[in-house]
Design brief:
The protein has 116 residues and is mainly beta. It starts with a strand and ends with a strand. The strands form two sheets. Strands 2, 4, 5, 6, 9, 10 and 11 form a seven-stranded mixed sheet that branches. A four-stranded antiparallel sheet has the order 1-3-8-7, with no helix packed on it. The protein contains no helices and eleven strands.
């Protein structure tokens, strides 16, 4: 089974930027990929999703205009560019992959903390 590994998290000041990466151990070409956010005391929430070909993206309202999801299928990697960060973006971010008829893929998560 394909393994996902997130990286790029850390501490950032309000208004700053981070780019998260999700590297897959195998091909994710046919997977719809997404980033989830799990804030302290809250349920895990899908914040951004990208279709297998990368032609369509969707975002939760709270990150629209600030976050951008992208993918490089040649590198089996998905990215989440986060700009204009707010303290409420503080969370563990998980990479997820879905493909009909196959088990859902999850990474181990990467912590993002937005604080001055």
């Amino acid at each position: 089974q394909v393994q996902l590994v997130e990286s790029g998290g850390g501490l950032v000041q309000p208004g700053g930027s981070l780019r998260l990466s999700c590297a897959a151990s195998g091909s994710i070409f046919r997977y719809t990929m997404g980033w989830y956010q799990e804030a302290p005391g809250k349920q895990r929430e899908l914040v951004a999703v990208i279709t297998s070909g990368g032609t369509t993206t969707n975002y939760v309202d709270s990150v629209k205009g600030r976050f951008t999801i992208s993918r490089d299928n040649a590198k089996n990697t998905v990215y989440l560019q986060m700009n204009g960060q707010k303290p409420e973006d503080t969370a563990v971010y998980y990479c997820n992959g879905n493909r009909p008829g196959f088990p859902s893929l999850w990474g181990q998560g990467t912590q993002v903390t937005v604080s001055s």
